[in-house]
Write a structure and sequence with these properties.
The protein is globular. Helix 1 (12-20) packs across helix 13 (326-343), helix 2 crosses helix 13 and helix 4 crosses helix 5 (103-109). Helix content is 43%, strand content 15%. The chain has helices at 12-20, 35-46, 58-64, 82-96, 103-109, 113-122, 137-148, 190-206, 230-245, 257-261, 263-269, 287-301, 326-343; strands at residues 26-29, 51-55, 73-76, 128-131, 158-164, 176-180, 213-217, 250-255, 281-283, 305-311, 317-319. It is an alpha/beta fold. The protein has a 6-stranded mixed sheet, with helices on both faces. It has a 5-stranded parallel sheet with strand order 3-2-1-4-11, sandwiched between helices.
């Protein structure tokens, strides 16, 4: 995807990186001592994607990063940030005392780089966080849910993935497909499913630069079978709710996957569908279907995937795969910078 030098190659994912260049946002990397994070930080800085704050060992990081890259990078050692740490601890205590958090517990929590980074975003000292290279997903998401919380009008944080479709394929748009939710919401209600659809559409538009065409997936198309089945009825209700949330959104459901993405099948199964078999955002009925579905696609088609990208937070915090390489981390940082840029607009 990217070369060792800070050069942007011509594929679908690096188009996202190009769109993020010059964002002017500041992203915090709490796992600054990890070699993959250091390599990614070097590339992000030289590509001028955003400013970075690395939390880690100052001596180690200054030795490994080039002087040119350091112009866009600030290094923080939490242990030496006494005044800031005290300020964040007080803010965290005020925020969570109603949940039983004590002042002593708050002081201990902000020594954790993940909590410290999240408090930086909460205090507007940074615009977003990227972590997960060495931290478990639950430990990345917990401070996000506790401190940043959901945007107004959103009931639950969800996630989406961006997949690069096979070269030469007509699937998706501009070589990309968005899928949600494959990582966070286990069994969404009709309202939550509608939110996932609308938020995933925003991800497609803001991050991928494509006009979203959303399919609410099911095992039936237009209730050809089991018309009274509650699973099918939930998707039908989610469709109506999503249309109320965004009346301009191109969306259809319930619809089978083949009818959603193959025009010839759509003509046979749902001739009047607004998607016309060209969906580029696929919304799964539950986490089980979503997680299984995307992993099968990823492995069978040997396609690149990035995510899960958290949706619905007031400020962006994203979780990396612990197997992520430096180039994949660069991409998630670029996406987070784009999310931060759009969150300023209140979107």
């Amino acid at each position: 995807m990217f070369s060792k030098k800070p050069k942007v190659e011509n594929d679908a994912f690096t188009e996202i990186v190009k769109r993020a260049q010059g964002s002017g946002k500041t992203i915090v990397l709490p796992e600054g001592n990890d070699d993959r994070i250091i390599e990614a930080a070097e590339k992000v800085s030289l590509l001028n994607i955003c400013k970075l704050i690395l939390i880690g060992n100052k001596i180690l990081l200054k030795d490994k990063l080039s002087k040119k890259a350091m112009k866009n990078i600030e290094i923080i050692d939490v242990e030496s940030e006494g005044k800031k740490r005290e300020m964040y601890a007080k803010s965290l205590y005020d925020l969570r005392k109603s949940k039983g958090l004590t002042e002593e517990q708050a002081q201990e929590l902000v020594k954790n780089p993940m909590y410290y980074a999240t408090m930086m975003v909460k205090s507007e000292d940074a615009d977003g966080v990227v972590a997960g290279a060495v931290t478990e997903s639950a430990d990345v998401m917990r401070p996000a849910f506790q401190i940043i919380k959901t945007r107004e009008g959103i009931s639950k944080v969800s996630s989406s993935l961006i997949l690069e479709t096979p070269k030469g394929s007509s699937l998706g748009e501009n070589g990309l497909m968005v899928m949600g939710d494959c990582a966070v919401v286990v069994n969404p209600t009709d309202k939550e499913l509608a939110e996932i659809a609308v938020l995933s559409a925003k991800t497609a538009e803001q991050i991928c630069g494509i006009k979203p065409r959303v399919a609410l997936l099911s095992y039936s198309t237009k209730a050809n079978v089991n018309v009274e089945n509650e699973d099918v009825q939930k998707i039908k209700r989610a469709y109506k709710l999503a249309r109320r949330m965004d009346s301009m959104l191109i969306i259809d459901g319930e619809i089978q996957a083949d009818a959603a993405i193959v025009p010839e099948v759509a003509k046979r199964k749902c001739l009047d569908s607004s998607l016309e078999g060209r969906a580029n955002v696929l919304v799964f009925p539950d986490l089980e279907a979503g997680n299984i579905g995307y992993k099968l696609v990823q492995r069978f088609a040997n396609v690149k995937a990035v995510g899960p990208l958290l949706q619905g937070l007031k400020k962006p915090i994203n979780d990396l795969s612990r197997g992520a390489n430096a180039d994949e981390i660069v991409l998630v940082i670029a996406i987070t910078a784009l999310q931060a840029k759009n969150s300023i607009k209140g979107e």
